[in-house]
Amino acid sequence: MITNNEILEIGLLARTHGKQGDIQCRMNNEYWDNAEAEFLITEIDGLFVPFRVTNWRGKGADSLIFTLKGIDSEDKVLPLINHKAYMLRKDIIEDEDATGLTWQDLVGWAVICGNKNIGKISEVDESTINILGILEDGRLVPLHEDLIIELSENTQTITLNLPEDI
Predict the structure, then answer these.
(1) CA-to-CA distance for 139 and 120, rounded, in angstroms?
(2) What percent of the residues of the chain are helix, what percent strand, and what percent coil, each to the nearest 5?
(3) Residue 150 pLDDT exceeds 70
(4) Is 156 in contact with 165 (CB distance < 8 Å)?
(5) Which pTM was predicted?
(6) How far apart are CA 125 and CA 64, in angstroms?
């Protein structure tokens, strides 16, 4: 059984594409492009269900079209529309300099600015090129590698170089 810790959200299964069962996924990050993934995963009835990808191609700047094994008609793909799309974390090709963390892994982490804890990240928005951490009180903090002073997995804190009045 696939667990929440094994997957990474990559987008939204937005609409059908053609009559042969292809599905268009609106991507909210580039993890799929930098992976060797065989499966596209979505949640159905509370369970994460993998679908083997037989083909995929780009469509525009932020969408991919997937062909899934066993989904060969518009009727079979319709129940997947408006479901979140996931992939297995283990399929991401790691950069030698990478920490192994994704932006989504920072949910629940405390943000330190100066010497002050300004709040915990409740959500990460990767829908644009400017990645944002959404704090529990609704404030937004930019998440960019150039702003990170320190990441501590032990204490689950991220120290950012931001103006202190944020």
Answers:
(1) 10
(2) 15, 50, 40
(3) yes
(4) no
(5) 0.62
(6) 19
